[in-house]
Amino acid sequence: MTTHVVGFALTPQQTDLVRCVAEEGGGQLFGAANAQQLSGALTSAIAAAGVTGTPGPLPPVTAPAPLADVRTLAYHQITSWSAAANERGEEAPILSDDGQRLTFARAPGTGDAANPNRIFVANADGSGETEVDAYTPLCGCGSTIDLSGNGLRVVSSDRVQLRVAEASGGGGRELLALDSGEINAVRISGDGSTVVFRIYRDTTIRGTSPSQPIQRGIYAINPDGSGLRQLAGPNNIAPVLGVTPDQAGFFGGSSGLDVSANGARIVFTMFVPAVAGGGSGEGLFAVNSDGSGARKLLEASNVTAAAISGDGTRVAHVTYTAATGLQEAVVAGFDGDGQRTLTDSNTPHPGTGGNLPSGERIQLSMDGSRLLLGSTGLLYDTASGQALALGVGAPGGPTDPAALVIDGLYRATMDAGATRALYLFQPYDQPYQLVQVDLNPADLGGAPAIDDPNVSPQYVLTEGGSTATVSARVTPPSGSLWVSSRVLRDGLPDANTYTGQLADDGATSGDATAQDGLFTSNGIYTDCCAEVGPRTLRIKAENRASDGLQHATAVDVAPFQVSTTPIEGGPTPTTPSPATPPIPTVPPPTTVPGMDLAAQATIAAQAALIATLEAQPAVTASAGLTPTLIVPSPTLPPVPPTVPPLLTPLPVTPPTGPGLTQATPTPDAFITPDPAECTITPRAAEALSSLTASPDPAVIGAFAVASAAPGLDIPAGIPADEAIMRVIEDTYRLMTACFNAGNDLAAYALWTDDGLRQFQVSPPAGAQAPRPEGERFGFRVTEVRTLPDGRVAAVWDQLAFRSSATFVQLLVQQDNRYMIDETIDLAIPAVSDPGPASPTAGSGASG
Predict the structure, then answer these.
(1) Which residue of 205, 279, 366, 646 pairs with 416 in a disulfide if CB–CB is 3.0 to 4.6 A?
(2) How far is 528 from 483, CA to CA, in rounded Å?
């Protein structure tokens, strides 16, 4: 038996005595400092004892603290699974409203009775993992899941069956089964009393004779299977749309169902036919639990996520406007009043770039004052619009283990008080694991302690006019340790202010004494485009404990600012010239407004650099080449003052170098590989994500310098023989074929880790499709040289749908193929730009 003791207002002597009693009983003492942990301890004890809990209303939830008061974040890896949990959309793990329990699915959707869909619950610290349901799916589907507020009841569906299970175990039970896979969203009210689900199309109830029809719409049912009732359907939605019931659309949409904690209010999406006016698309609607009050909250749009607050007062949604490409995250009252746009796709977001969540959960807190925007890991104050990034990567640290905290929180969910979140991260050679993050925790647990954080001076000047030094004393509980920092602006990572890894070696980054526990970096500085204003400095320390689990702590330090002039009391600024160059933070590439989206995906990481280096508002058109508007998006570190700024016009001159003359190829010299030629095994998306956490500043800086200078920087070497030429051409042919096939991950398999790390390549967002035949990409290799170190330098042109470029790259031999290892120069448009090539040009080898 475990003994926990609760004591308040105790004297020191009483505290020591009572703590001894608790510890002798295997428990702990709970007082004012850790009262919030008591609920979790009781829940764990109940689960261990096999006592069945009863879902019910949550106790009052304290309003979240102001985001400005959140100064410490603690991260804990809580699983070390060998078998992966589902992570797609609403099949991903969920944290309960009280923050003490979680649920996840291992649901392969094979239809094999020997390998069923399995549903699990566990405590928020990963302990007490229990399988609560297992069933053979009636379609080739995984299981969408949801969890009651206190984590004691789970609902799941494979699209055909609707099931419920108690967290205490005992197996699940079927509430309803259909004759086709039409259940496309499920929710359970916070108090566990009502299951709400959405039926996409009209169908029939399985096992009924004669077949009992069930109409498309929004339904509720009691957890014991009684009380099936339709809350919204064609009959009460048609008048809202101004159409007849038979004209009402299907009930579907991405992540488009949510219910308040007491089940009284429901928001949902459905498809709106064009006949309803306002164009076709998805509409956002609301209805009460008795079927009354059906109304439209949003005109026809593309709604990619929706949520309602626990108290039912606030609604949030993410929309996509096809005509403009704009994505927006908006909050409003349940009646549709007081709309406020919190962010849109013009702003880069951690983890997702310019994109916003689609097909995954977004969540409002109980009182609607906070919005967690899914995989961005951004927590918003819905009244002020202020944001706090819960997941911010930073330069520095080893490549193995993979960083526990990177930009964004993949598939993040949170408790009702916005004090704890749950997300997925992927270590090397392991499936996704669960991580718990606590805001302003009373106890850091196994995470490093960060004390005496300091930044001096409390400013940096614009355009690299000065540097600042950050330091902190860090104590790891055990295991390895690495410390880094990142500058935030308005709660988001600042792409124009750079920081570095903090050292404790007494030799680099301005550190004075080795191994004294005081970590230092003297490398905070700005680039050309940093805007004046306040900043926050986030110091992050990560460690891996002896049990292999990783932990991290992040502490935000303020005030700090970017200024055009020295701040009173600060030292006289000097142009930065540290003995050890600071390691710059290189944000992931973001969408470049104006460039053809497919072209960006095909050029992949290179497109971000193309956009950055492009000086003019439009690419100068050569004969037959369509001008393309490119808005510069400076993401590279600053270059030395002697190098022309990256945002000045780039002269395109013939390539230079020993023995090289300007090529004069014709359009038909381009090879346009067929997508069917893409036969290489793709890289894993997760492995690609991990590379963004460890940029190589020296390589990135050298590329920035070379790209800004006139001409092409081509290493001296010996012209390659025909055999090597063909092998190099094969590499680019296969890469281009994979880009044409819409398989970027396969194309990246032809790059080394270092080659991808240089460009901070992120995995493609969503499914990709092969390019239309008339829009496929071409390439030609114009020069290949063998270098003294065994590598090969290649000069090649890429012809995209609306742009072209010449690249100088180094390749290394791995097995029987040459891999792209480094990009050392770039010219836009391509040298001797030929204009657009014929879609069928170059079906054979180049000349």
Answers:
(1) 366
(2) 27
Length of the chain counted residue by residue: 847
Going by pLDDT thresholds of 50, 70 and 90, the confidence category of residue 570 is low
Angstrom distances, CA of residue 318 to CA of 25, 251, 270, 374, 603: 50, 18, 14, 11, 28
- CATH: 3.10.450.540, 3.30.70.20, 1.10.10.60, 3.40.50.300. Which one for 650-827? 3.10.450.540
Residue 345 has phi, psi (to 5 degrees) of -75, 0
Are 282 and 271 contacting, i.e. CB atoms less than 8 angstroms apart? yes
Q: Both tokens of residue 413? A: 């969910």
The pLDDT tens digits of the residues spanning 803-821 come to 678 899 999 988 678 999 9
At which residue do the structure tokens 């002039």 appear? 565
Integer CA distances (angstroms), 296 to 63, 237, 303, in order = 29, 9, 13
Q: How would you classify residue 358: left for phi > 0, otherwise alpha for psi between -120 and 50, otherwise beta?
A: beta
C-alpha distance across the termini of the chain, in Å = 81
Task: Say whether domain 68-439 belongs to CATH 1.10.760.10.
Answer: no
DSSP secondary structure letter of residue 646: T
The pTM for the full model equals 0.65
CB 190 within 8 Å of CB 97? yes
Q: Encode pLDDT of 115-143 as tens digits.
A: 899 999 999 999 999 999 999 999 888 99
**637 CB burial (10 A radius; 0-12, 13-18, 19+):** buried
Q: Give how far Cα 477 sits from Cα of 232, 394, 436, 605, Å.
A: 54, 21, 18, 38
- H/E element, 37: helix 36-49
> What is the spatial distance between Cα 481 and Cα 448, in angstroms, rounded to a whole number?
8
